Amino acid sequence: MGEMWKGLELPDRWLSPLSDTNTKKYIRFPDSQTFFCPSLDSFDGRVLALALEEEHTDFGRALVAALWFDRPVQMILKTGKEIMGMEACVYRCHIAGPLFTKKLLEIRSENPDHDMASAWELRFLKNIEVKDISEVKRPDRALEPEWHLDCMKYTKNG
Amino acid sequence: MKKKREEWEKLCRTYPDLSPFVLLKISMVWYGAVLTETALDRLQEPDYCFGKLEPFAIQFDGRPANKVMPGGILLRDATYVYINYGETYENPYQIDWDDEQGEFLLRDEDGIIDTVDFVPRPDFFGKITSKGTPMEAVADARAQKLIFTAFQKCRLWEGKDQCHFCAFFTGRYSLGEVDCEEIYETVREALKEPGRFSEIYLSGGTDFSGEPPFSVEIERYIRVLQAVGRNFQGRFSSQLMAPAYPHQALKRIYEETGLTSYCPNIEVWDKHLFQTLCPGKEKWIGYEEWIRRTLDAVEIFGKGKVCTQVVAGAELARPYGFKTEDEAIKSNFEGCEFFAKNGVICLSTIWRPHRASRLGFQPMPSLSYYVRLAKGFHEIRKSYGLISTNDDYKHCGNHPDSDLERLDV
């Protein structure tokens, strides 16, 4: 556990495609489950962060297992025909604090009705070659809604 | 002196399917933790600085008078660790601040174990209500949970009928009964911070006043929940931790407020030990009735929306407790299974002996006892399809067994 805490710098070549809105972003777990991951970005060139909409889902469980048991994941970016891959460690789950708030506000700026259960911090480990992206899925839905209370608050406009 | 890291790593090897973070949490609560001066100084800064007034006010002697104690610890997976800051521990973990890395570090005697974080200061701390009360005295906060204590004293202490493991309200500061308007205002203020809270938790010291007994307390909880509810449309994610009320009273609470979950804590499953360690609960409600009312509550709130907890370890405390950990485990598993069969989530919390409680400061059961308990409780509930969305790592954090549910479907 203690060996991983420093993480590695994200190579510069990742920064531009990460911020390109035309880039398609994916995360692949060791069991080959691959999910769309449009919220992935890096705000400081070191830390990668993604927003998890709901936790009690296949995507949420996969992230937890990767963090608990130190299982590296693959982050894949596709811009046009170019595919880039990296191995990353799932480093931290944020349920409050600056990174959490930043990701939440990003999500809500796109759609004020959207919410997010947690933000996940990943750290670059190494570049890898990825040949194909297949069987990509969207996360399933939680059995119960996972809303924050400020989404439920009473307003005079209903 | 035991090497904590070695012991924790051995636990990880023995229980490869359990979260290393949950095992670390159990170890941290068991050994305790102290903050270095550097860490405590960093925690006085605005992003972390908690309130000076704590609604549950427990007395600790080892706290520096000029410093504010922080919120709970968050491990890297957001597992919450509650530490009694200021308790004197024999062989505690140490939490330091690394200025270069900009991170808090958890250390044992041999070096760094991992980075940790703390619950950030909520934006409403430092604000005051329209009546001039600091909001930090009205509500406490965890990472995602907003906590209200409706009655900041416990009347069971009047006749020395308090639970033997309890040290609540032994500190000096208490508001007594909180004001509903101030609660409404505090919730309203708390909701201004985006995504900061996803559950409201209401509890308080026991107040058996009124005829029939507890009627004053029931009316108070209804008033408070209605005040909270003025901030929402319809029901809101919430939990009431209170005595086991009769069905009709509970139905009123449910129908007249936006409450979604209820938690009458049994504290100790063994009947004889319950009667001994929780004399006030026995006197005013009784063991059998407490259980009957807890099961009845499922009809109102639904399966998995009624919880109860055992203060795990108190059943082994001297002089009354079980003689062996195996006997205690057997009793606790029996209780958890009984409740699960009836749709009630039975959780365990780790008993930390307090000098200010009747049981006093005495050795805890072994670390492995708590690991076995967390594993067993989780497995039992899982086998009945129960998942505790109101008392999980995010909405409570006191229960290692529900921290383990994050991989459950």
- Give the SSE order of chain A as H and E letters: HEEEHEEHEE
Provide the succession of SSEs of chain B.
Answer: HHEHEEEEEHEEHEHEHEHHHEHEHH
Query: Which spans of chain B have pLDDT < 50 for at least 5 consecutive residues?
Result: none
Radius of gyration based on Cα positions of chain B: 20 Å
Secondary-structure class of chain B: alpha/beta
Q: Strand pairing plus helix content of chain A: what structural class?
A: alpha+beta
Average pLDDT of chain A works out at 91
CATH superfamily of chain A: Electron Transport, Fmn-binding Protein, Chain A
Count of domains of chain A: 1
Describe it:
Chain A is an alpha+beta fold and 158 residues long. Chain A has a single domain (11-151), classed as Roll (Pnp Oxidase, Chain A). Chain A is built from three helices and seven strands, in the order H-E-E-E-H-E-E-H-E-E. In chain A, strands 3-6-5-4-1-2-7 form a seven-stranded mixed beta sheet. In chain A, a hairpin with a 5-residue loop joins strand 1 (24-28) and strand 2. In chain A, 37% of the residues are buried. Chain B has helices at 4-14, 20-31, 37-42, 135-138, 180-190, 215-229, 247-256, 271-277, 279-284, 287-301, 325-341, 367-383, 400-403, and strands at residues 33-35, 73-74, 80-81, 93-98, 103-108, 111-118, 139-141, 145-149, 199-203, 238-241, 261-263, 307-312, 345-350. In chain B, helix 1 packs antiparallel against helix 2, helix 5 packs parallel to helix 6 (215-229) and helix 7 (247-256) packs parallel to helix 10. Chain B has a six-stranded mixed beta sheet with strand order 1-4-5-6-2-3. Chain B has a five-stranded mixed beta sheet with strand order 7-8-9-10-11. Chain B has a two-stranded parallel sheet with strand order 12-13. The chains are: A alpha+beta (158), B alpha/beta (409). The A-B interface holds A 1-2, 5-6, 55-56, 60-61, 64-65, 67-69, 91-98, 100-101, 104-105, 108, 115-116, 118, 144, 146-150, 152-154, 158 and B 19-21, 24, 47, 74, 76-78, 101, 103, 111-115, 117, 119-120, 143-144, 146, 191-200, 230-234, 236-237, 387, 389, 394, 406-409.
